[in-house]
Amino acid sequence: MKAFSMWMACAILLFATFVPSASAFAEARGNADKETGKLKSAIVIEQDTGKILFKQNENKELPPASMTKVMTLLLIFKALQNHQISLKDKVNVSEYAASMGGSQVFLEPGESMTVDEMLKAICIASANDASVAMAEHISGSEKAFVAQMNKEASKLGMTHTHFVNPTGLPTKNHYTTAHDMAVMARALLKYPQVLHYTSKYEDYLRENTDKKFWLVNTNKLIKTYPGADGLKTGFTNQAKYCLTATAQRSGMRVVAVVMGAASPKERNKEIAGLMDNAFAAYVTKPLLNKNKTVAMAKVNKGDHAQVPIVTQQPAVLLLKKGESTKGLKKSVKIDKSLQAPIKSGTVVGRFIVKKKGKVISQTPLVIKDNVKRASWWQLFKRSAGTILTH
């Protein structure tokens, strides 16, 4: 028995030597939580360049809840830009749209509101009924609109996203990632008009009726975080508390996404901290404005001999604070063979910035105007003019 007792004592001593105590394990876990928070996924990007400033499980597929409406809004603003719809259009509410649960503005079957009012309802109150009403107004049915959502996601390169509805109400096979949400938000922010709606803390619907409805923004950061002006919250029991937020300071705009926070307080605290770190560490340096002409290019058989090539978006450098901009080399690279006809906005080259031989910025260059195919008479006069000058 003495020998057995001695053996057990040695075994316990060895175990204690090589295995951390429960308290030590808890301490290590606590430190990890301090570093990563209690989020399932997160990302921070700079808007103009799309550079990732922070990421954590950014490709983890998760339910986005009402952050889904970022894509719904993107398609609405695309339809507005293409003159498919206008802000003054009346949107009729179907019985199906009015039946949506969750966040809503209590639209009634047969009721009509303008697109402008529907945008208020979606952006400020996260209204599911308004989202479905707009989906039906644009595409004819919710199903057709969802197909358009998934097509747009594919076009944007969102490889870990699939939509089943335009609201984010819980359903199978409806998921995205923090990374894809950031890509989606960045695309939406190319329509600055959206911030007119998402930056409002409160507003009203049916203001001049006895059914006046008060809208209060679900994104409290726009009231508490300096520079915040959007974008979209989300919550379901499965998704927990999510937020895609954007803020701008000193000309630099960041987009931050958090998914799976335990509470609204935790969600807002985490995303504010992420954006604070981004603004503390980085600055942007504008180089060229959007639509800035950087070159003239020849288009084979075009109705104009040369056409302006412009920046598709602002050319911006993202720099760490204190980083020098000396030694930058800028160049314009245009595709060699441009053939008419070409639509306005077609990408035909890049504005490139290098530092010490490394590319640090690339801005797409596009055709400014539509280029039609030249008539035979235009081509004849052009050829004759060339011959005469020689």
TrEMBL record:
Residues 1-26 form the signal peptide. One of its GO terms (molecular function) is carboxypeptidase activity. Keywords: Carboxypeptidase, Cell shape, Cell wall biogenesis/degradation, Hydrolase, Peptidoglycan synthesis, Protease, Signal. Residues 282-373 form the Peptidase S11 D-Ala-D-Ala carboxypeptidase A C-terminal domain. Pathway: Cell wall biogenesis; peptidoglycan biosynthesis. It catalyses: Preferential cleavage: (Ac)2-L-Lys-D-Ala-|-D-Ala. Also transpeptidation of peptidyl-alanyl moieties that are N-acyl substituents of D-alanine. Pfam families: PBP5_C (PF07943), Peptidase_S11 (PF00768). Its EC number is 3.4.16.4. SMART domains: PBP5_C. SUPFAM superfamilies: beta-lactamase/transpeptidase-like, Penicillin-binding protein associated domain. Belongs to the peptidase S11 family. Removes C-terminal D-alanyl residues from sugar-peptide cell wall precursors. This is serine-type D-Ala-D-Ala carboxypeptidase.
